[in-house]
Amino acid sequence: MTQPTGIRGEHLRTALALAASGLPVLPLRAGKVPFGNCRSCANNACGGRPNMKTPGPCACPGPCHAWAAATTAPHVLTSGPWRRAWLHAEAVAYHPGGAGLTVVDLDNAGAIAWAREALPATQVVPTTRGEHWIYLGRMQSANAVRPGVDIKSTMAYARWLALGTGTMTTLPGAVRALITKDPSPVRPAPSAVRVPTLTRGGQCPHRTPVYLERGVAMAEQRIAQARSAVHATVYRTFLAVLSTHGRCGCLTDAHVARLFTAAQAKGETARHCKDAWTNARTTLGL
User: Fold this and answer.
1) d(Cα 149, Cα 108) in Å, to the nearest integer?
2) Do residues 5 and 73 lie in contact, with contact meaning Cβ atoms separated by under 8 Å?
3) Which 3 state secondary structure label does DSSP give 280?
4) Contact indicator for 201, 149 with CB cutoff of 8 Å
5) By C-alpha distance, which of 233, 245, 209, 9 is closest to 100?
6) pLDDT (tens digit, 9 = 90+) per residue, 4-44?
7) Which residues, 6+ apart, have CB-to-CB distance to 70 below 8 Å?
8) Comparing C-alpha atoms, which of 168, 264, 161 is closest to residue 210?
C-alpha cells in the first residue's frame, strides 16, 4: 500500500515500531477517540460506549475498534480498514494490559504530588496535563480511583506520547489497592487441574517475554468475551496460543493454568479444558 505521508505517516511508522517491540497499537482520531474499523461500526453504529472507547455488541468477524482492535500484526496495521484510519489519524494509542503493563494516569499537579509520595518510582511519560507512570504488570482498569488518577491496563487504551524517563518497575500493591472495593462474596475457585505443558521450557526465542505475556493476556480476554460457542472459542484460543508458542517451549504451567482458569470461569469443566488443550496439541503435531 501507499503509506500516509507527513504527520500521519509518522503515526503509522511509530505504530509499526511499537508493534515490533510487542506493544499492541491502534490509531486514534480527533479527540483521542478510536476509529470504527468496519462499515457496521462507522459513526458508532454498533453501540461502542462512549464514543467507541469500549467495544460495542457488533457482529463483526472480530473486535474492530477500541482497545480490542489493538494489534502487533504489521499486515493488519497497513491494510484493510486501517489504511483509511491512518489517513485521518491524529495519534497512536496502545493497549497496556495486552503488553503486560499498567499506566497510572496522573491528570494534574495534585495527582503527581500524591504519586511521588505514595508510589515507587518507575518510568514516567509527560502528558498534556500531567504524567503517565508505567509499571510492569497488568491489572483491572478503573477511572477516578482518586482525584485526578485513572488506571489503564486491561480492556483500556492509553495514548502513546514518548519513551519516557526512568526505569520501569514492577506493579506495586499500592496501585492494585486503588481499585479495591468493599469485600464482595467469594466465588468458588476453579477446580485444580494438572496442566499438560511442553517439557522443554525456556524463553521464547522469537520475541521478548512481553510478547508471550501479551499473547496469554489477549487469549484470556478472548475467552472471557465469548458470548456463545464457548467450547469452540476455548479450543480455537488454545490452538492459537500453541501455534505461536507451542514449539519454542516458553509456555509454563502458570501460563496454561491461566487459560484453563479463564475457560472454567465461562463454565467449562476441568476435563473439557484438558481435552481441548490435548486436541489442539494433536492438531499441531506437538
Assistant:
1) 9
2) no
3) helix
4) no
5) 209
6) 555 567 899 999 999 998 899 988 888 777 776 566 665 55
7) 24, 25, 26, 93, 94, 95, 98, 157
8) 168
Q: Are 63 and 55 in contact (CB under 8 A)?
A: yes
pLDDT tens over the chain, length 286 residues: 455 555 567 899 999 999 998 899 988 888 777 776 566 665 555 555 444 455 544 555 454 667 777 888 888 888 776 777 888 889 999 999 888 999 999 999 999 999 999 999 999 999 999 999 999 999 988 989 999 999 999 888 999 998 889 999 999 999 999 987 544 444 444 544 444 444 444 455 555 666 677 778 888 888 888 777 788 888 888 888 887 777 777 778 888 888 898 888 888 888 888 888 888 787 777 7
Using only the alpha carbons of the chain, give its radius of gyration.
20
Per-residue DSSP letter, 188: P
All three cell numbers of 31, joined, read 479527540
- Count other C-beta atoms under 10 Å from residue 162's C-beta: 10
Q: Which residues contact 197 (CB under 8 A, 6 or more apart)?
A: 251, 252, 253, 255, 256
Q: Quick one: cell of 249?
A: 517451549
DSSP string of 50-116, one letter each residue: TTTSS--S---SS--SGGGG-B--HHHHTSTHHHHHHHH--EEEE-TGGGTEEEEEE-SHHHHHHHH
User: Could you tell me the pTM of the whole model?
Assistant: 0.59
**Cα dist from 246 to 181, 200, 252, 255, 267, whole Å:** 38, 10, 10, 12, 25
